[in-house]
Every structure is written in C-alpha cells, then in structure tokens.
Write a structure and sequence with these properties.
heterodimer; B: 414 residues; two-stranded antiparallel ribbon; two-stranded antiparallel sheet
Chain lengths: 174, 414
C-alpha cells in the first residue's frame, strides 16, 4: 500500500441478512415508544430553559439582533465615537454624531440594518463604552422589510440578554 | 329489467360508493400514518399542527396540491403526460372491487320507487363489490397494469431522470410479477378455486394459509413490496440517484395522484396478504363469524380492517428500517432467487398435496394444513439459512469470500 490506505478486515463469516433485517426491525419498533426529542417550538421555547420548561437553551455566546445599553437616566451609553461603523464588515451601521452644550458627544442617528448585518459581533467587541451589544435572541419576524432597520430608540428598548461573545470561564478559547 | 336485477344493481352501487369513499379517505389518512410512523421511529412527533393530533393534515396537503401550479415540461408529450397519473391510479383502486371485506350480510327488501319500478333482494349479500368467479386472475391482471402508468409517466416527461425511473419501474415490476404470480399457485392448489370468497371460505375450514404455505406468503410479500415500488425496492423513485424518478416532472395534483396510487397499492397489497394468507375477514378460533348476521358482518369487517392495518404498518415499518437495494441485486433477487424458489415450491406443494390426499387419504383440512405446516418449517428454515448467509446476493461478503478462495486456489495450483 504505497499511499497508505487502511484496509479494514471485514467480518465476512459473521455476516447475516435475514437476522440483520429482523434485528433492524426490532430496533425501529423499539424507537417508536421512546421519548420524543422534538421541542414543541411555539409552546416550548429555549428561552424558557430557566423555568425548566425548555429542554434546549441557546448559548450565552449566541450573536443575535442588537441591543443598545442605556445609563441610569435612560440615555444611550453611546458616545458616537464611530468605531462600530468603522469596524463593521457588512457596513450596516449608520451613525451621525452630535454634541450637546457640555461637549458630550451622542448619536443623532444610530441605525442598524439587520438585513445587512452578518452578526459577527465586532461592534460589541470594539465598543469602548460597552454600549452596543449583540443579543441572545432569535425571534425577529416582522410584517414589513422597513422594520428591520433598527433605530436608536428600538435598539435601546430591547430587553433580551446580551451576548458574552466568548465563554467567560475560558476567555482565550483554550 | 327484473326487480331482482334492479335490487342487485342498487346494492352494487351502494357498495361501490362506500368502498370507493372509504378507500380514498383511507389512502389520504395513510399518508398521515406514514409520516407519523416515520416520525415515531425517528423519535420525532410527526405532523401535529393541523387539526387534533394532525388528523387534518391530509386535507391541508390536498388543498395545497389543488391550488398549486400545474407545470408542463416544454417538450413533454402532453396527452400521455396527463394520462399517466390516471393510468397508475385507476388499477390501484380497481383491485378493491374484488376483495371481500366482511362476512355476507342478509339483506331483504321489496319496494317500489316511482318510475324506477320494483326493487327486490332476498338472502345473503356478499360484502364485496364484485364477487368475480375469476377474482384472483383479475387481481393479477389489473395489478400488472399499474406499470403502464409509471412507464408512461417516465417516457412522456421527456426528462432523463424520469425516463430512467420509468425504465427501472417497468423492468422491476415485470420481473416481480412473475414471482408474484408463481407464489400464488400453491394457494390455488390448496383452495381449488380462484374466487377470493372461496379462498377465504377454505381458510375458515382449515388453517390460515400463512401456516401451510409460509414460503408462498414470504415470496408474495417481497414481490408485493417490489410491485408497489416501496422501499427497499423503490428503484423507480430512488431520490439519491434519480431525483424523484418517474414523477420528477410532475407537480400539484398530478403528483398527488401518483402518491394516492402508491398508497392505494400499499393498501391493496396489504388487503391481498390479509385475504390470501390471513383468512380474509375470518375471526380466528371461532365459528361464530360464519353464521351470518349483521353483527357478524360488522365484527368481521373490523377484523379485516385490523389485519389490513397491520400489514400496512408492516410495509411502513420495513420502509423505515431497510436501506434501498442496489439495482442489479434487486433484479438478481427477483430472477435468480424468488422465481426459482417459487417454482420449486410449487413442485414441493404439488407432491405434498398429492401424497397427503391421495396416498395417505387425509382429507380433513386442519390435519392437511398441519402436515404442510411441518413441511414448511423444514423448507422455510433451510431457505432462511441460505438467504441469511447472503449466498445469492451479488457482491455480498459471502460471495466475495468464495470468489477470493477460488482465485487463491487458482494461483496456488496454476
């Protein structure tokens, strides 16, 4: 075997056809009465996993639709530094910065086109104020396409959990 | 027209309507059953959204299929393309006409209906749409017509995949037709009659034919799988090789018709297995059901239904257990194993029946059946041992082993 193909020895004397068929039939029949693994989606949701209802939960590292965090006064934490539109590989963030009388920068317009977004999570990684986050969230259906451009108000009013992006117990991915 | 004839016609029309409706609704529900069974065997739940426990799913599917767009391939032969679904669908339903599904029921009426005149019927009404004296031959004749629909569909589509599927279907169905017909000759030998009602009556007197004619049953079942193009013999469809085989180019209701045909075929084969080898509507261990009466008819109809359902389930069970055969293995099994086996079995049963009846003079049907059952245990064991070793399967491990040893011996000696 010049190219090192591994040849497996077949158990040729032990092969069976009728017996194997019967065995297979017994197996499939047994499976009919086993516990079903299907999650009944609209009734059971993975987000219910805390209450013990769902049997599956999405990872805390899941990167879903965005969420803007706000400070105690309810203003967004964003300082309109412009890093997130800069780093965004899909170019889906539209940011127009503004400045108030004290010289604090804030976003006049902050829009994320969720259709263009590739959910890489770079915006969250790059944000110096920990303002923009990708969320642990997957139910995004809407009745019109315009609704998928999330503006600042919509981003701030989201309440779902935010992604940890990496495993906190293993931050370096080891 | 005599009043008796009118009465007969009236009853026949009622039976036709009932059987047709029950079959069509049943076939629709079989599609749901298939999906449920497959789901359960894979630890899933299956369709459960439309209606209670998903029972209205077939209705939703039907509605969807009626509303979908009908497509015609540009270069298809339009008339044959339209004819093919009907051609595969009609024979599948026709077969139900001759299958007796319950004990005969006494019907007595004598009334006059305006201009139509007098309707009279007295005595037992056989619970079968057409109690043909040639029932059995009718089944063989009509079941072979199913291949026309599939071959036509494959050819008329003007598509390479459909054509290959149609070709495979015709080769496969014609081959297994032979084994199927031959496997049923022992049944005729024992029953001495080709009418299905008579075959059921014979089984009530003796044992169910599955015992004295076990190998016939086995060959018939395998050929039945091949005839209905169900897994493990669904060569004409073979998704992984031929997209969808003969119905690649079909859409909407035309596709649905192929589906209905497939499930009616499954139901027919199950009903045939139940009738020929499992006593038809006979309730075992009692002679109460043969007395005749309304109650008996209902009970036997229920029993027949149970038997048919079991065999339908069995067909699905096999489908979700076994992988698809390779095409040459399929043809090899049909021509080199099942057909010779069926022929040899006819010889054996002929000799056995002759010896038992003429030489030993045993005419009691139960003793006769028991003796044949003993014989079947021996032959059946032998056949299963041979099949189990895979000696006849082309490319099987056993065959490769013999080829290898022969080659080795050749190199040593030569």
């Amino acid at each position: 075997m010049a190219i090192g193909v591994k040849v497996l020895e077949r158990p040729e004397r032990q092969v069976s056809y009728v017996r194997a068929t019967l065995k297979g039939m017994a197996l499939t029949f047994k499976h009919m009465f086993e516990k079903k693994v299907t999650m009944q989606y609209p009734e059971e949701k993975s987000s219910d996993s805390d209450s013990g209802m769902g049997r599956w939960s999405i990872s805390p590292r899941w990167r879903g639709t965005h969420r803007m965090l706000t400070d105690e006064q309810g203003r967004s934490k964003c300082v309109a530094c412009g890093l997130c539109p800069q780093v965004c590989p899909a170019n889906c963030i539209k940011l127009v910065p503004g400045e108030d009388e004290q010289g604090n920068r804030y976003p006049l317009i902050y829009e994320i086109d969720e259709f263009r977004c590739v959910f890489c999570g770079y915006c969250q990684e790059v944000c110096p104020e920990e303002a923009i986050h990708v969320g642990v969230h997957y139910e995004n259906s809407e009745y019109s396409r315009d609704r998928f451009v999330y503006d600042l108000e919509r981003l701030s009013s989201q309440t779902h959990a935010v992604s940890t992006l990496w495993d906190p117990t293993d931050p370096k991915g080891e | 027209m005599t009043p008796e004839m009118k009465g007969f016609l009236l009853l026949s029309i009622i039976k036709m309507l009932v059987v047709f409706t029950v079959t069509m609704v049943g076939v629709a529900l079989l599609t749901l059953m298939e999906r449920k069974v497959s789901a359960w065997m894979q630890n899933r739940r299956g369709p459960n959204r439309v209606g209670p426990a998903g029972l209205l799913q077939p209705a939703a599917d039907g509605l969807k299929n009626i509303l979908k767009e009908e497509t015609f391939p540009a270069l298809a032969n339009r008339w044959l393309f339209l004819l093919a679904p009907a051609m595969s669908f009609v024979p599948a339903l026709l077969l139900f006409a001759v299958i007796p599904f319950a004990a005969p029921v006494p019907v007595d009426f004598d009334f006059t209906l305006g201009p139509l005149g007098r309707f009279v019927h007295h005595g037992l009404m056989p619970m079968v749409v057409a109690d043909l004296p040639v029932g059995f031959l009718f089944v063989l004749a009509i079941s072979s017509m199913g291949v026309y629909g599939i071959a036509l569909a494959g050819w008329a589509s003007n598509s390479k995949y459909a054509l290959l599927g149609g070709l495979r279907a015709s080769a496969q169905m014609v081959s297994y037709e032979v084994a199927m017909g031959l496997s049923l000759i022992p049944v005729l030998l024992l029953s001495g009659n080709v009418s299905l009602s008579a075959i059921v009556r014979e089984q009530q007197l003796g044992l169910w034919y599955v015992l004295p004619l076990f190998l016939s049953f086995f060959i018939f079942l395998i050929s039945g799988f091949a005839e209905t193009n169900r897994l493990p013999f669904d060569m004409p469809e073979a998704e992984s090789e031929l997209i969808a085989g003969y119905h690649t180019e079909y859409s909407a209701m035309k596709f649905s018709f192929f589906f209905i045909a497939e499930y009616s075929n499954v139901a027919t084969v199950s009903a045939m297995v139940a009738t020929l080898f499992f006593g038809g509507w006979d309730i075992p261990f009692t002679h109460w059901d043969e007395a005749g009466g309304v109650l008996q008819t209902i009970a036997t109809a229920g029993f027949f239904f149970l038997k048919v359902m079991f065999w339908i389930f069995f067909v699905m069970w096999i489908r979700w257990t076994l992988p698809r055969f390779r095409y040459d293995q399929l043809m090899g099994l049909g021509w080199k194993v099942l057909m010779p086996l069926a022929l040899a079995y006819i010889m054996v049963i002929c000799v056995a029946v002759y010896l038992v009846e003429q030489r030993f003079g045993i005419t009691d049907p139960i003793y006769k059946s028991l003796i044949l059952f003993g014989l079947n245990l021996v032959i059946g064991g032998l056949v299963f041992w041979v099949l189990d070793s895979g000696m006849f399967l082309k490319g099987s491990a056993r065959q490769r082993l013999t080829i290898n040893t022969r080659a080795r011996r050749a190199t040593v000696t030569g």
